[in-house]
Amino acid sequence: MGIVSYIREEIQVIRERDPAIKSNLEVFLYPSFRVILSYRVAHRLYRKKHYFLARWVSQRAARKTGIEIHPGARIGRGLFIDHGTGVIIGETTVIGNNVTLYQGVTLGGTGKEKGKRHPTLKDNVMVSAGAKILGSFTIGENAKIGAGAVVLRPVPPNCTVVGVPGRIVKMGDQRIPREELDQVHLPDPVSNDIRQLQNDNLRLRREIKELERHMKCMEKEDTIEIEENKEEQHETV
Q1: Pairing of strands 160-162, 144-145
Q2: Which of 108, 106, 122, 118 is nearest to 157 (CA)?
Q3: Which segments of 123-180 does DSSP mark as H helices, in order?
Q4: pLDDT tens-digit profile of 54-109?
Q5: pTM for the full predicted model
């Protein structure tokens, strides 16, 4: 892809996914645009085994934008990094088309293992602010990762993951994340569990009170029966 075509595509991507942009010229100020342009150059150098030059280009971009993309990562078209500060993309990361990352996202490994050690993100994935995806596994198409989530296992397509460690809380969501970019209205399993515990607690209290009333009624009936027996015995005597 030529530089002019790349710039036109980036303008379209950023305008599609960032409502704050007011003009095409603003694209040139975006850290996402600048760092991905540098990544394309660094990745080409990396593939030609010019490793030092590749890292020099990528580290220079990281210092200027706060976004660190290893030149060995493989990134498809339409990647959008909103704000971007603190984003880290590891060497063996694979990113599909039309993926959206927010600030503070880490696509990292879990140690010093060799070979493929970073995640693979399929098309249309959205990773919300502060989320960490660690390890060599796949995040399926159209998946959505909630803010602050720590994902350590594969995620099927069309799923929503939240929490630490990440848990799948919604499956079969067919809406494409890049069309709505909603980081807020995600299921909250912790709140749901607390609400369920509160409901169970209220139910148990009602049952205990009902049992107490029942026991009191039985005690009262027993007392009346004893008194009646005493009276009958007295009359017999």
Answers
A1: parallel
A2: 122
A3: 177-180
A4: 999 999 999 999 999 999 999 999 899 988 899 999 999 999 999 999 999 999 99
A5: 0.72
Strands (DSSP E) contained in 88-214 are: 88-89, 94-95, 100-101, 106-108, 120-121, 126-127, 132-134, 138-139, 144-145, 150-151, 160-162, 167-170
C-alpha–C-alpha distance, residues 129 and 183, integer Å: 8
Distance CA 65, CA 85 (A): 7
Distance between CA atoms of residues 145 and 131, nearest Å: 7
Q: Residue 170 carries which side chain, given as an amino acid letter? A: K
Is the Cα dihedral 14, 26, 146, 182 positive or negative? negative
Assess contact for 75 and 100: CB atoms under 8 A. no
Reduced 3-state DSSP string for 80-100? EECCCCCCEECCCCEECCCCE
Which residues of the chain are under the pLDDT cut of 50? none
